[in-house]
Amino acid sequence: MIKSxxxxxxxxxxxLSGCATSNHGTFVAYTYIDxxxxxxxxxxxxxxxxxxxxxxxxxxxxxxxxxxxAITDAKSKVEGTKYLTDxxxxxxxxxxxxxKEQVIEIHATAHK
Length: 112
Hints:
Blueprint: H1 2-17, E1 42-55, E2 59-61, H2 67-77, E3 83-96, E4 99-111
Antiparallel strand pairs: 1-2, 1-4, 3-4
């Protein structure tokens, strides 16, 4: 009886702890910008996002959201973007009935 209660407690703890699959800590692959690019043209403000849906709040569907994917998405919005400046990162969770969405969003200035 005591062992079954311990087993139930351990299983409950594992289910409630979940797992963190977002990669917003992996910021950018590099931060060095070639000095030759410093005189490039600022194109304007852009945004990019990376998101993942969690079915029943505990089952992840799709690739984990990451800052690197959000930056790649932002760069793809303006053709020829070489680098981004004034970068801000926002990590949000949108709770819906039966699922949630974790979204990493980038706001930046694109440069050609």
